[in-house]
Design brief:
Length: about 270
Amino acid sequence: MYKSSIELRYLYKTYTSNFVNNNIEIKKDKIKLPKLKYVNAKIHRYFEGRVINATVSKTSSGKYFVSICVETKIEPLKKVSGNVGIDLGLCHFAILSNGEKIQNPKYLKKSLDKLAKEQRKLSSKEKGSNNWNKQRIKVARLHERISNQRLDFIHKLSKRIISDNQVIILEDLSVKNMMKNDKLAQSISDVSWYKFVTILDYKAKWHGRKIHKINRWYPSSKTCNNCGHVLDEMPLYIREWKCPKCDSIHDRDINASRNILKQGLLEIA
Ligand SMILES: [Zn+2]
């Protein structure tokens, strides 16, 4: 038996009520909550299982969310033979050791550009004024939209990776360090990488898959996946390189993800 609940970012205020005497219930477009009875709601996901509690949150843009924690039984997926190494990309969201490069969805780029624009507008307004407050809500809504779009993308991607692979190897990245980055787009993509790993972790537990994180000091970008030769340095701008020892030509990210897989399988064995 596992507990699951939906996480929300940019929360403002929250409270949680436990389930007693059917005080929490979901109907087609309504939700029954303690003290409130039935309220209209947009239901994002239906579920099966025993309700444990409901958490109501108000976001900084003034929207309300309810997340329901349910206890449900999850059947492990059938075993598969696939293994995958995943590298966090610079130009892509992720690169898989099978050579697949996973793009960030285009709609996210659009929303991020818009966010940057609206944020500039916000900083030009007088703090505390009416206009500033209106703009603040606009920015908060955009943050929420981006967060939801990211989450949706991450859920779909993690589902696919879990169903195709038995063993999943990643680098253990220090997210605390990553989040110090002051570039907005970058910091948001760091957050989604962190979230992606968190979701992969729990889905792997649900479905009987193995996740392994290799040491983040392992030189996955500088090592030739063919002969094991390690370069002295690998500047970020280099996208493709030729190994001086075995003459293999490497795509930087695919080579790294293959090394991640190789190293991870070694560590597990
Ligand atoms: Zn080589």
